[in-house]
UniProtKB/TrEMBL annotation:
Gene that encodes it: rex
Alphabetical list of InterPro entries matching this protein: CoA-bd, NAD(P)-bd_dom_sf, Rex_bacilli-type, Rex_DNA-bd_C_dom, Tscrpt_rep_Rex, WH-like_DNA-bd_sf, WH_DNA-bd_sf
SUPFAM superfamilies per record: NAD(P)-binding Rossmann-fold domains (SSF51735), Winged helix' DNA-binding domain (SSF46785)
Name of the featured protein: Redox-sensing transcriptional repressor Rex
Lineage: Bacteria, Bacillati, Bacillota, Bacilli, Bacillales
Subcellular location: Cytoplasm
Organism: Neobacillus driksii
DNA-binding region as annotated in the record: 18-57
Family: Belongs to the transcriptional regulatory Rex family.
PANTHER family (UniProt xref): REDOX-SENSING TRANSCRIPTIONAL REPRESSOR REX (PTHR35786), REDOX-SENSING TRANSCRIPTIONAL REPRESSOR REX 1 (PTHR35786:SF1)
Keywords: Cytoplasm, DNA-binding, NAD, Repressor, Transcription, Transcription regulation
Domain CoA-binding: 81-182
Main location: cytoplasm
């Protein structure tokens, strides 16, 4: 996010890409305004939360009018740095890593996996969807040549910390960690942890213990 972004609550910040994706669709279908109720139905966030989120960035909908789609879209594009391409490195070209390379976030035209790394000599020198796969020995060199500050970690858990230490030294500022390992990083480094097994377990727990009418957004 750009530096000029005011401090908004993290929960709000996490919802911005969701709002942005929906507004882009609305805009391309020619819609000029949207109510918080319509937004709420589409993104499955309750309308009070949407109104509160939007109030943080001064987008105050008018009663009976709703929000101006163009205004919101311009605001989100700027806030989410959509005009700027963020290059990403992927470490670990196994099952999960290969799936990400094949997907490569092409629908978000502002993020792209630029290079991938693995220790497997058979993978070195190959490309997946035009993304080159380098050997881990080249990590520092490639990252220092390119303007890459974000990494996705899809390696076995036991090697995650050692690799993280190397990434931190190579000027990586943010890590999307898919391994079950909990990573130690300096306070200046941002780590988002996506543990699919934990998510699945918690989904099943909620399914068993909470009737659907108790669901809160
Ligand atoms: N596959 C899934 O659906 C899934 C789901 C949830 C979490 N995860 C987690 O994601 C991670 C990757 O899972 P996977 O299924 O893709 O595993 P995988 O074994 O298919 O792939 C791991 C890759 O990392 C490489 N690697 C090993 N040591 C390395 C090192 N020191 N440096 C760089 N690369 C190295 C391997 O050569 C391999 O290509 C694991 O931590 C796993 O627990 C996977």
């Amino acid at each position: 996010m750009s530096n000029e972004t005011m401090k908004i609550p993290q929960a709000t910040a996490k919802r911005l890409p969701l709002y942005y994706r929906f507004l882009k669709n609305l805009h391309s279908s020619g819609k000029q305004r949207v109510s918080s109720a319509e937004l709420s139905e589409a993104v499955k966030v309750d309308s009070a939360t949407i109104r509160r989120d939007f109030s943080y960035f001064g987008a105050l909908g008018k009663k009976g009018y709703g929000y101006n789609v163009n205004y919101l879209l311009t605001f989100f594009r700027k806030t989410l740095d959509q005009d700027e391409l963020t290059k990403v490195a992927l470490i670990g070209v196994g099952n999960l890593g290969t799936a990400f390379l094949n997907y490569n976030f092409l629908k978000n035209n502002n993020t792209k996996i630029e290079c991938a790394f693995d220790v497997d000599p058979n993978k070195m020198g190959t490309t997946i969807r035009d993304v080159p796969v380098f050997h881990m020995d080249e990590l520092e060199k490639v990252l220092s040549n390119d303007d890459i500050h974000v990494a996705i970690l899809t390696v076995p858990a036991p090697v995650a910390q050692v690799i993280t230490d190397r990434l931190v030294k190579s000027n990586i500022k943010a890590i999307l960690n898919f391994t079950p390992a909990r990573l130690n990083v300096p306070a200046s480094i941002r780590v988002h942890h996506i543990d699919l097994a934990v998510e699945l377990q918690s989904l099943i727990y909620f399914l068993k213990h909470y009737p659907t009418e108790d669901i809160e957004e």
